[in-house]
Records
---
Amino acid sequence: MRFNTDPPVMRAVRRLAASACRDEGASEIEAGLVGMSLGEALANACLHAYNNGIGPVTVDVEYLRPRMILSVHNHGSPVPDTTTVPDAQPDQESRDWGLYVIGRVMDEVEIERSPHSDHGTLIRMTKYLTLP
Amino acid sequence: MDILSCHVEVVPEADILRIRGEVDTGTLSSLRDSLQPIIGNGRHVIVDVSELRYIDGGGLRMLSAAQQRSEARGMQVLVAGPSPFVRRVLQIVSLDGALPIFGTVAEALEHLRRIAVPAPHSYRDQDGQAS
């Protein structure tokens, strides 16, 4: 799906992802955490790619039981090529809290930076759901 | 209905910030506007999250910064009433160690009353040194 990084739209998409996980049998907490990771990736697009503004993102959700795979592709400025998922809690001024949260929640995180200045960044996140 | 509402209540032991709803990109400024005036004013702060349904990385960063600012002034930021989800989020980002967590606001207040009371047999000499 493709939409703009409007906060109310991002909120709805984040809730949708959590709902999809619940529908597959994930616990309330795990579903909420997956939704949170998607919300962080969208907020990062808003903050980094569009300078805290609004721009287009493409979100793909793929479910290969038990793997929930979420991809967020923005079309703004790509992240610096040194960007990695922080291992430790960032300091208070850091803009990496979103990536830190994603790294703590999701089992696999890949960041692909476009070599083109207007093709943004793709973040692909995988969670192995704990199913009953 | 507002996505997020913040309300500050002043009691003798602390300022209580009651957060209700969801903290995300669209509502973060409301939390900032409520939190900033009460952090660093020389009082403890209890953040009542019993009706908080969601908090994102920006909100967590704000709580962490508030805790550090308060601690620098000898005060505490305490979290009260987290849902299992919010409690798990605090654990995941390792904020549960820095932010004391209590089941209810009453428990957090009780904690503040306890730490405010000097030890029963402590003695201070004329220079104010405890022994």
---
Amino acid sequence: MKIGAIAGITFKEAKRDRILYLLFFFGAASIVFSRVLAILTVGDRVKIIKDVGLASINIFGVLMAVLIGTSLVYKEIDKKTIFTLLAKPLHRAQFILGKFLGLVLILFVMTAAMSAIFLAVVYLHVFMIDWKLLVAITYIFIELVLITAVAVLFSTFSTPILSSIFSLAFYLIGHLSWSMELLIQKARSPLTRGFLRFLYLALPDLENFNFKTEAVHGLAIPSSIYAWSVLYGICYTAFLLGLAVLIFRRRDFV
Amino acid sequence: MARALEIKDLKKSFRLGFIPRSREILKGISLAVEEGEIFGYLGPNGAGKTTTIKCILGLIFPDAGSIEIFGQSNFSHKARASLGFLPENPYFYDYLTASEFLGFYADLFGLERGQKQARISSLLGLVGLDQAAGLQLRKFSRGMLQRVGLAQALINDPKLVILDEPLGGMDPIGRKELRDIIVRFKDEGKTVFFTSHILQDIEMICDHVAMIVGGKVVRQGPLQDIVSEKVLFTEITISGISPEELAGLGQEVAVKADRVFLRVYDEERIEDVLRLTAARKGRIHNLSCRTETLEDIFVETVTKK
């Protein structure tokens, strides 16, 4: 109930943010523009639409999660609304979870709206719905949920600008960390290999949620990989939120 | 019976600055607030009043000491459920209407829909905002925000109400209404702990006061024990007599037209002034005794430290 109340107020606050609509506008424009790109391309035009469309949903979704997520908790502290909230019988963990869920809800609405535009553009091109695209979008959304947890974590102890930089760095590292496997294979010293292996385990691997290529090219993926990716997303998100609660519980609100 | 609020040897330091240096804000605060009383917490800016309140509310973790609310740790949910808090210069979600805003706070206490609506209506009536129930908070004046802030502090019908500078930014009528509300809390059996810079208000309504200077409570006790009935001086306004004739009977404060404003410190001299006025066929326009006020005691206490 309390978490729901906080989530509700977070949703109401986030949906008033102009940045959200600006990003949505650019996201939607980018998806529609993919049809123009397809016309200019030689070859399989629908693949261009699918590639650009999915990438747009992903990139603009991440920007929404980071830019809104990093400011929501900070705003409560900066404007001192948090004083009256935490003076009530409300656990700090409930506050963080409420903020997180409110943000996830707004991202769900935005992802759904961008996906609807994307599927409409694809439908207008091939006159059919490719359900594999929905699978790719679902995993993009799981990735957005994880990025939201990252944004909330950083916002519990840092300013919005720094938190945004940290969160975007997390996103980039998360998509490049798979290359660590190649480094491990090439490293000669066992010590270096051990260190790289530790880094690979500690760093996020956001490629676990990247099923865009498979969706665009219609490649089959074993269901165990789908399940593993969901489990990875849930565990990593829970870990980040746990860390956020731990930091937030010890904070003094001066 | 447990006290409404009991603070024992509360200490808090902050590390401030680019090269962090520890600064002790609270240096061992101890005070006790009995159930049903109005307790005034006074101090100059930066004395540690708001830091004490934040410690009570669990927004700040003290370095040492203990805080109990009705015998429970201030961090317990039971203690939190029994208190209401209005911060200084409150800022709230300005896109919500007054009703939505109070509804949100009611949800944090899990009030049922019917109970919630009844409580919101009665609170808006109590703070005089029943006409503004559907208005967004962004359209509220500072005084109205203070009132809606007070309403949110009362949403759970708390036994202990903590108010941080509640009278700041209010016009005289608003201040009087708020004072009346605070006195009504006492009649309902609630305990009120509040800070204010407006000492006349504290003097009017408080049962007990504590003065904090430099992070220490320097004086505390029942108001009647602190403020004595001692006459400091008598102010007399006279016409028909020249200021020169009154020299030596008191301190001349001002002369306006034919009126002389005189301050007499020696009570025996008052008789002399009256006798002289009668002899010269002058006229007394005002004669009033100025007793010691809380403000005098506060200024004396703060400057002594």
